Every structure is written in C-alpha cells, then in structure tokens.
C-alpha cells in the first residue's frame, strides 16, 4: 500500500501505533527546527533585539512546520480528489486547508496563547536551571499539542473527511 502522506511505497503504519505518529509529525518538527535556526541566524546578522530575534525564530519555525504539512496533506488529497475534474486544484487546496485547520487549529490556538507560555514560565520557575526548565515546558507543551492534533487527525479520519 502506498503511503498517502509521503508517497512512498512503504506500508502505512496504523494510526494507533507510535510509528505512525512519528512518521506523520517528525518531518514537520525537523523542518520546524531547521527553519527556526536559519531564521534566527539570519535575524542575528541584522539585529540584536531579543523580541525581533524571538519573532524571527517563531516565524521561521511556523514556515517550516506548516510548510511540510501543507505539502504532505496536499499530496494526500491529490490522491482523494479525482484528477481532471472541474476545479481540481481548488478542491485539493480547499480540502488541504480544511483538514489542516481540523487537525491543528484548536491545538495551535491553545498552544500559542495558553499552555506553552504557562508551561514554559512554570518550567523556568520550578526547575533550577532555566534552560532545563524551558525544555521541560516545551516537552509538556509539545506532548499536549501533538496529543490534541492526533485527536483532530483521527476525527477527520473516522468521519471520512480525509477521503479514502
């Protein structure tokens, strides 16, 4: 069976297995790290402003993470939507955006505005080493984010919104 996510001919892991979730989210997380670092290095050549450096890191991370996912879900939907039909490209794009919002919309909002800031502040407050505190906050935040994202993915899968 071809993997609709990445187009490989490797067997697709079952959604309840850890291998499935690693295969689904690891490439986006890796791209996020690479683009975050690239944006940070570029920004550091232009400014020493901490807020601007943080904003560039966040922007770079967002571009990398969702860039990979847009391509992946778009490839998945190109298989679902019948090619050559009227509005093919528009339908693939619309399905891709809607599925990404269903999978990541709520987790992204909660992560950005609620639990990531709170958990990172808590990590720094509770752990003696601030770097370890930030990493602990990030780990808990990432766990919540990916758990809720996985629920969104499974909901779209179980309702048939992802197609065949």
Task: Explain what the structure shows.
With 164 residues, the protein is mainly alpha-helical. Helices cover 78% and strands 0% of the residues. The chain has 4 helices and no strands. The N terminus is likely disordered.
Keywords, separated by commas or semicolons:
disordered N terminus, 164 residues, mainly alpha, 4 helices
User: Beta fraction of the residues?
Assistant: under 5%
Query: What's the story with the biggest beta sheet?
Result: none
- How much helix is in the residues? over 70%
Q: Structural class of the helix and strand makeup? A: mainly alpha
Number of helices: 4
Computed Rg:
18 Å
Give, in order, the helices and strands.
HHHH
**Span of the ends, CA to CA:** 13 Å
Number of strands: 0
Q: Roughly what is the average pLDDT, rounded to an integer?
A: 88
Shape: globular
- Uncertain segments are 1-12
């Amino acid at each position: 069976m071809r993997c609709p996510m990445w187009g490989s001919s490797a067997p697709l892991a079952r959604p309840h297995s850890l291998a499935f979730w690693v295969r689904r989210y690891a490439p986006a997380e890796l791209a996020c790290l690479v683009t975050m670092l690239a944006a940070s290095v570029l920004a550091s050549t232009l400014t020493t402003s901490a807020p601007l450096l943080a904003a560039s890191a966040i922007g770079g991370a967002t571009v990398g993470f969702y860039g990979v996912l847009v391509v992946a879900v778009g490839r998945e939907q190109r298989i679902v939507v019948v090619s050559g039909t009227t509005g093919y490209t528009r339908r693939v794009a619309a399905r891709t955006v809607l599925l990404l919002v269903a999978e990541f919309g709520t987790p992204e909002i909660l992560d950005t505005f609620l639990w990531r800031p709170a958990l990172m502040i808590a990590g720094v407050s509770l752990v003696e080493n601030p770097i370890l505190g930030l990493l602990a906050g990030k780990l808990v935040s990432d766990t919540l984010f990916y758990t809720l994202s996985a629920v969104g993915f499974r909901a779209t899968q179980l309702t048939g919104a992802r197609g065949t």
